[in-house]
Design brief:
about 160 residues; mainly alpha; rod-shaped
Length: about 160
């Protein structure tokens, strides 16, 4: 009495080169060589799309975390520099006010010093506003993979 031999439905060693494992070879009429039902195929495509969307979200999170870390460090350093610069400007302003006091009343000297700083503040505000408008934080890797995913999805439809 001979035992029936059990052959696996999918033998990875017999997979043709150039196809990922788990992929089924396609035949001339575009039909697959497996016996999956339409529901199973739809389920597989849905699972693949779900996995793909999760991977895209993870990639976006990683990219955003990296960019926020860089921006946070830069913002902290700029904050420290801003505080130190504030004290420099404060004492420079007091020095200017006392220098102008040699030729005019202290009140007029203080008003002139305030006017100078008002002009500087306006120029800095306009420059900063322009820089913020020009910034456009994009996610280049995520955008590229999303384009590839869209192409893949279109290929699956046909």
């Amino acid at each position: 009495m001979t035992q029936p031999t059990h052959q696996p439905l999918h033998d990875p060693a017999a997979q043709p080169k150039g196809q990922p494992s788990g992929a089924t070879p396609t035949h001339a009429a575009g039909q697959t060589g497996d016996d999956r039902s339409l529901g199973e195929i739809f389920s597989d495509v849905t699972n693949d799309l779900t996995t793909l969307i999760k991977q895209e979200m993870d990639l976006a999170k990683v990219e955003m975390k990296e960019e926020f870390a860089k921006a946070g460090k830069g913002a902290g350093l700029l904050g420290g520099a801003g505080l130190a610069g504030y004290f420099v400007l404060l004492f420079l302003s007091v020095t200017l006010m006392f220098l102008l006091d040699n030729w005019m009343p202290i009140e007029v000297a203080a008003l002139i010093t305030t006017g100078v700083w008002a002009v500087v503040a306006g120029v800095l505000a306009l420059t900063g506003r322009k820089a913020l408008k020009e910034s456009n934080p994009q996610l280049p890797k995520t955008q590229q993979t999303l384009k590839e995913d869209a192409e893949w999805a279109r290929a699956q439809k046909s």
